[in-house]
Amino acid sequence: MENILKGKTTALIDMDGVIYDSMKYHTRAWERLMKEVGVPCTAEDIYLNEGMTGPAVIQLLYNRALGHGVSDERADELYALKTQYFKEIGNNDPMPGTDRMLRALERAGIRRVLVTGSSQASLIDNINKDYPGAFQPGDRVTAKDVVHGKPDPEPYLKGLAIAGVPAEEAIVIENAPLGVRAGKGAGIFTVAVTTGPIPREAFEREGADVVFPSMPDFADYLDSIC
Ligand code: MG
User: Fold this and answer.
1) Tens digits of per-residue pLDDT, 93-133?
2) Distance in Å, CA 166 to ligand 1 centroid
3) Cα(23) to centroid of ligand 1, in Å?
């Protein structure tokens, strides 16, 4: 494989399933919430729609089950509950291999910008503690900064704007098919790392430029070129 960092200055890095091994907890929090309101929701729903904002997921699940959504206020209320459940259920488990991946990028002089569709403060606020120096202050896009969220390219376009670089100088690091779609929609070379149950074909369908089977595999690759 050609050196994927050639000509690159910036890595736009997703959080859930990339920085933190958190998708299992998100899934349980969603299942608990949707069970309470009587709307079907499977783990696959959550993995396949990862990257969308919380309220957008709620609208999708309601529409599918009942043929109509809920008010914006109700969606926000339900998402606040889901956020609370995640905080109760979840731990901020660092993704195995990610620390090594981030340090390799740092050695290569690649600026790291966090780009997450999440507003989960219980994770976002811990990144500097769990990964000291990995991200400079202000080098982050969260759900609070965007209108559309993934799979819209907006979050990654905002990441480019923060770094002040053109798409050609960046790479995206994602674990979710809709995140890959967002990265490609922004015109950026997109690396998919399969850190969950989604098969690699799902990432190839979205146009991922390269797919690594695990985070340690991606870190091994970076260690070999940086
Ligand atoms: Mg993710």
Assistant:
1) 999 999 999 999 999 999 999 999 888 888 888 999 999 99
2) 23
3) 8
